[in-house]
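[User]
Um, tokens okay?
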Amino acid sequence: MMSLPFFAQAAALLCVWAGRRNAAFALLVLSLIVTLVLFRLHATDPLAIVL
């Protein structure tokens, strides 16, 4: 799951090199949204700690 933001950022970099600025910006925003969603899922996950 955590690889999704990296793939989106790599695709955005390829779009920048290809001269597709709007697509690169959209992929950057998508990667930020995916990162925030994954953080929310991770931060609210209960810890299974047995003391």
